[in-house]
From TrEMBL, chain A:
Coiled coil: none annotated. It comes from Panthera leo. The keyword Phosphoprotein applies. WD repeats lie at residues 356-390. Part of the small subunit (SSU) processome, composed of more than 70 proteins and the RNA chaperone small nucleolar RNA (snoRNA) U3. Interacts with DDX21, NCL, NOP2 and EBNA1BP2. It is found in: Nucleus, Nucleolus. The lineage of its organism: Eukaryota, Metazoa, Chordata, Craniata, Vertebrata. One of its GO terms (cellular component) is 90S preribosome. GO terms for biological process: maturation of SSU-rRNA from tricistronic rRNA transcript (SSU-rRNA, 5.8S rRNA, LSU-rRNA). This is WD repeat-containing protein 46.
UniProtKB/TrEMBL annotation, chain B:
Keywords: Nucleus, Repeat, Ribonucleoprotein, Ribosome biogenesis, rRNA processing, Ubl conjugation pathway, WD repeat. GO terms for biological process: decidualization; epigenetic programming in the zygotic pronuclei; maturation of SSU-rRNA from tricistronic rRNA transcript (SSU-rRNA, 5.8S rRNA, LSU-rRNA); negative regulation of phosphatidylinositol 3-kinase/protein kinase B signal transduction; oocyte growth; proteasome-mediated ubiquitin-dependent protein catabolic process; protein ubiquitination; spindle assembly involved in female meiosis. Pathway: Protein modification; protein ubiquitination. The keyword Nucleotidyltransferase does not apply. One of its GO terms (molecular function) is ubiquitin-like ligase-substrate adaptor activity. Belongs to the WD repeat DCAF13/WDSOF1 family. Its main location: nucleus. It comes from Panthera leo. InterPro entries: Sof1, WD40/YVTN_repeat-like_dom_sf, WD40_repeat_CS, WD40_repeat_dom_sf, WD40_rpt, WD_repeat_DCAF13/WDSOF1. This is DDB1- and CUL4-associated factor 13. WD repeats lie at residues 62-104, 278-319, 321-362. Pfam families: Sof1, WD40.
Length: 612, 445
């Protein structure tokens, strides 16, 4: 991703660009026939990641990747590892270990696995607790290094799409990509022409193996889209607003004109849930087994699909709810409203956890990325904004689109797709799960109808688009996480494995009350109730059992323990304590003054009163 | 244009034949495992619930005695053998694997007061109300032989307890004084007294083997060094101590079972404050025994229950009781640290698991891994109120339950009075005495 050429930097003459267009598309590992001076020799795909790591170690060369590739070759023979251990270790056979010591681990990879936030210190912790925490931290450090080392075993590399120098990747058409990639990947691009039953909504199952789609005029079907095997196809004879798979591909929910219906994989209606009526949007929280429904009547209803009970029905008091998305990181539901706000909901609270004013007009679409860091919104004011969800909900970047995006979706690796009329735009950032830069799209595609639903397929470089003319499966290289975890969601799982997984998942169903903005809060020390308990205990006992006892001088050797000297020693300790207190208060004072001094430093102006 | 699409070869992810195991590729990236903490919490909750579901500690009851079981002894070499002495002078040797009595001896007239095995496991000693010390062979008599003790020592006074040295052919008895005996002689090597009172138990230190501890009915615990003729020091408590037990891992730590419902863990070097006061029983504590790991001990009480305490905690982690079990007089923790035996008034010896929900028998490696994982999770989330409530819940018989309530009220009243006294008196004139120091009367050297 780092090698995207910026057209503003060196735009080739028009003739050249035409030539580039005419050139036959080439597979990425094929040798280039006319190797220009600046042309990079493409390495084998396996080298890609290692190159990047090497580049991180030498920050000087990051500006020009081509240069770095050339300069890498002469540097390779002298390994920095060997220099680190001067004493070569000899084995019994006399052979030298060329890589002595443990394998080095890149810091940023190990950082990914770190779970303890070392910046947070416990207030007034006892030494025993502190040592225990230190031990835990050391263990964590060791574990994170081990986990980082195990990354070496990951089998797959993420996909990518790079233009030749000056070539804009957004200009590359789907046909070209299909022609350039291997047959198996090319088969993932397909169009379903279903003009009859109107605009389609679609949803991929959690493993990315199955696709469910429902047309406005009642056409509902699910299929194993990899093998193109149809599982069921029905017409519900009613308007279909939304469709969503439940925890596995065996069940899916359809929001129909009046009520919510649940079907199994043969298209047999299992339930009709009349308490959820006039549902506009559906979201499924797989770890909580909750189906969140946003209705026309303004209610956000949580349905526990494992026991069939309504967990919470929240009145958003904001009219019709037709914009909804989930935050996959903390299972909070984001609702977009017509007054330009996005509200964050959890079933445990009757009121929204937060409200963010995003747009001047109504909100048309909301999407949250898989790490829960970024939220993309688009409004009636034709703006597309990306917000930081980590603390202050501040906008990070914004862009006005000519038409405004009606649908937004994030991919697993942080690509942002937007559906605008009959065009799909995709933006990408630098590396995995980073902020997508809105300046230049990564890919664009024009469809045969207006976009009505977007969904990235998990674990496949595919974007499913539902539109008025049917379904299109787009190829988006680099969209999906390449290495899945077999115990979490395995696209290749057998029936037995699925059953086993289902039982396990049901056993560890997270209660709905635990949904909050920070899902890790459960593992942290509850300082507030700790202090409260302490206060209550002191009140109950009538004294503080943990208070420091007043200093009592120890009796010394014969002759030195006179009353006068005892008093003197007592006094000394008291004075020292007093001095400490004064010192602390003095240290705190300048900080306070600084805070106060800041606004006075600049010259006061009449407009200051509007400052916050 | 250079393009690479994610394209997996299914052969790398699907097993080749039906006989193979399924392939499960792993990726430990935290973004692929969302809700890690809430899911772990739920797992911990489930593990805690299952632990309570599987908590079935009672294993067997050994019946055969015709009077209350007064003392128990472990075999030093054989895990399956256990010896017990009853109030009618009968000694029985049991096989725990068969759960059967393998030998019965009418050892004394009146109570068997104490029983101990020799460190080699070939013989054992008993003392009784008939003022005798008898040494018996561990193996039964051959065909046609009479059941007779190897040696019999006639004493002048009643002996109330006996313990054997851990390495040498020396044993100690207690009664009106502590006597140290050589096995070969019929008179004690030395006898030690400090004041005039009946001493109820004597115990050798398993690590510093020449050290002894005893407790007497004039409320004190006395420590002796076998190498010198006089006692070392003593601590006087509020009420009488029934037994003491040395920590098998830490030489200077011992625990005393007291009449005032508490147990006190002392550091031998600083007797003026106990290391820990263990409170939970609602009646006199009659016996105590350490686990071989030295981390926990079990106590038997007159309130018809036995409790397991961690050494560094003041509250018990477990309480065992049955409807039929009466006052528990003696208790022992087996040498493999897995089982607990207790002998009670109603003539039965009961065998319990030390860890109530433990699965007995050989565990497969997956079972073991799951058990360890669950253990760690329970530890991690043990302070969460919901989990703590489930993990702490124990069913108690009504008598114990109501007594606990009653004593809570009494304690609260006492505390309230203390606070009021502190509040309405001149500052500094009334000091707060901590629970640890409250029960120590004096230390004498």
């Amino acid at each position: 991703m780092e090698t995207f050429p910026k057209p503003s930097r060196d735009v080739p003459p028009k003739k050249n660009r035409l030539q580039a267009k005419k050139k036959k598309p080439r597979r990425y590992w094929e040798e280039e026939t006319t190797l220009t001076a600046a042309g990079a020799s493409p390495g084998p795909p396996g080298n890609k990641k290692r190159n990047r790591e090497l580049r991180h170690q030498r920050p000087k060369n990051t500006n020009n990747p081509k240069k770095s590739r050339f300069s890498r070759k002469p540097q390779l023979p002298k390994k920095p590892r060997e220099r680190r251990n001067p004493g070569p270790q000899r084995s019994l056979s006399g052979a030298q270990d060329p890589f002595p010591g443990p394998a080095p681990v890149p810091v940023e990879v190990a950082q990914k696995f770190c779970r303890i936030d070392k910046s947070k210190k416990l207030p007034h912790s006892k030494s025993k607790t502190r040592t225990r925490l230190e031990v835990a931290e050391a263990e964590e450090q060791e574990i994170s290094i081990k986990a980082a080392r195990s990354e070496l075993l990951l089998a797959e590399e993420p996909g990518f799409l790079e233009g030749e120098d000056g070539e804009d990747t957004a200009k590359i058409r789907q046909v070209d990509i299909v022609e350039a990639v291997d047959i198996a990947s090319a088969a993932k691009h397909f169009d379903l022409n279903l003009r009859q039953f109107g605009p389609y909504r679609l949803n991929y199952s959690r493993t990315g193996r199955h696709l469910a789609f429902g047309g406005r005029r009642g056409h509902v079907a699910t299929l194993d889209w990899v093998t193109k095997r149809l599982m069921c196809e029905i017409n519900v004879m009613e308007a279909v607003r939304d469709i969503r798979f439940l925890h596995s591909e065996a069940l899916f929910a359809v929001a129909q004109n009046r009520w919510l219906h649940i079907y199994d994989n043969q298209g047999i209606e299992l339930h009709c849930i009349r308490r959820c009526d006039r549902v506009m949007r559906l979201e499924f929280l797989p770890f909580h087994f909750l189906l969140a429904t946003a209705s026309e009547t303004g209610f956000l209803t949580y349905l526990d699909v494992s026991v069939g009970k309504i967990v919470a029905a929240l009145n958003a008091r904001a009219g019709r709810l037709d914009v909804m998305t989930k935050n996959p990181y903390n299972a909070v539901i984001h609702l977009g409203h017509s007054n330009g706000t996005v509200s964050l909901w959890s079933p445990a609270m009757k009121e929204p956890l937060a409200k963010i004013l995003c747009h001047r007009g109504g909100v048309r679409a909301v999407a949250v990325d898989s790490t829960g860091t970024y939220m993309a919104t688009s409004g009636l004011d034709h703006q597309l904004k990306i917000f930081d969800l980590r603390g202050t909900f501040q906008p990070l970047s914004a862009r006005t689109l000519p038409q405004g995006a009606g649908h937004l979706v994030f991919s697993q690796r942080g690509l942002l797709a937007a559906g605008m009329g009959d065009v799909v735009n995709i933006w990408a950032g630098q590396g995995k799960a980073s902020l997508p830069s809105l300046e230049q799209p990564y890919l664009t595609h024009r469809l045969s109808g207006h976009v009505h639903g977007l969904h990235f397929c998990p674990f496949e470089d595919v974007l499913g688009v539902g539109h008025t003319g049917g379904i299109t499966s787009m190829l988006v290289p680099g969209a999906a996480e390449p290495n899945f975890d077999g115990l979490e969601s395995n696209p290749y799982r057998s029936q037995k494995q699925r059953q086993e997984w289902e039982v396990k998942a049901l056993l560890e169903k997270v209660p709905a009350e635990l949904i909050c903005l920070d899902p890790r809060a459960l593992a942290e020390v509850d300082v507030i109730s700790l202090e409260q308990e302490k206060k209550e205990r002191i009140e109950r006992l009538g004294y503080d059992p943990e208070a420091k006892a007043p200093f009592q001088p120890k009796p010394k050797q014969k002759g030195r323990s006179s009353t006068a000297s005892l008093v003197k020693r007592k006094r000394k300790v008291m004075d020292e304590e007093h001095r400490d207190k004064v010192r602390q208060s003095l240290e705190q004072q300048p900080q306070k003054q600084e805070k106060k001094a800041k606004p006075t430093r600049a010259r006061p102006s009449a407009l200051d009163r509007f400052l916050r | 244009m250079k393009v690479k699409m994610l394209s997996r070869n299914p052969d790398n992810y699907v097993r080749e034949t039906k006989l193979d195991l399924q392939r499960v590729p792993r990726n430990y990236d935290p973004t692929l495992h969302p809700f890690e903490v809430p899911r772990e919490y739920v797992r911990a909750l489930n593990a805690t619930k299952l632990e309570r579901v599987f908590a079935k500690p009672f294993l067997a009851s050994l019946d055969g005695h015709r009077d209350g079981v007064n003392c128990l002894a472990k075999h030093p070499k054989s895990l399956a053998t256990v010896l017990s002495g009853a109030c009618d002078g009968e000694v029985r040797i049991w096989n725990l694997t068969k759960r059967k009595c393998i030998r019965t001896i009418q050892a004394h007239e009146g109570f068997v007061r104490g029983i101990c095995t020799r460190f080699c496991g070939t013989s054992f000693f008993t003392v009784g109300d008939d003022k005798t010390v008898k040494q018996w062979k561990m193996d039964g008599p051959g065909y046609g032989e009479e059941e007779e003790p190897l040696h019999t020592i006639l004493g002048k006074t009643v002996y109330t307890g006996i313990d054997h040295h851990w390495k040498e052919a020396v044993f100690a008895t207690c009664g009106q004084q502590v006597d140290i005996w050589d096995e070969q002689r019929t008179s004690p090597i030395c006898s030690m007294t400090w004041g005039f009172d009946s001493i109820s138990s004597v115990k050798f230190n398993p690590i510093e083997t020449f050290l002894l501890g005893s407790c007497a009915s004039d409320r004190n615990i006395v420590l002796y060094d076998m190498r010198q003729a006089t006692p070392l020091k003593k601590v006087i408590l509020d009420m009488r101590t029934n037994t003491i037990c040395w920590n098998p891992m830490e030489a200077f730590i011992f625990t005393a079972a007291n009449e005032d419902y508490n147990l006190y863990t002392f550091d031998m070097r600083a007797l003026d404050t106990p290391v820990m006061v263990h409170m939970d029983h609602v009646s006199a504590v009659l016996d105590v025994d350490y686990s071989p790991t030295g981390k926990e001990f079990v106590s038997a009480s007159f309130d018809k229950s036995i409790r397991i305490f961690p050494v560094d905690k003041s509250r018990s982690r477990e309480v065992y009781h049955t409807k039929r079990m009466q006052h528990v007089i003696c208790v022992k923790w087996t040498s493999d640290s897995k089982y607990i035996m207790c002998g009670s008034d109603e003539m039965n010896i009961r065998l319990w698991k030390a860890n109530a929900s433990e699965k007995l028998g050989v565990l497969t490696s997956r079972e073991k891994a799951a058990k360890d994982y669950n253990q760690k999770l329970k530890e991690k989330f043990q302070h969460h109120p919901h989990i703590k409530r489930i993990a702490r819940h124990r069913h108690l018989p009504k008598s114990i339950y109501s007594q606990i309530q009653e004593q809570c009220i009494m304690k609260e009243a006492r505390r309230r009075k203390e606070v009021n006294r502190l509040k309405h008196s001149k500052p500094g004139s009334v000091s707060i005495v901590s629970e640890k120091k409250k029960h120590i009367v004096a230390v004498v050297k």
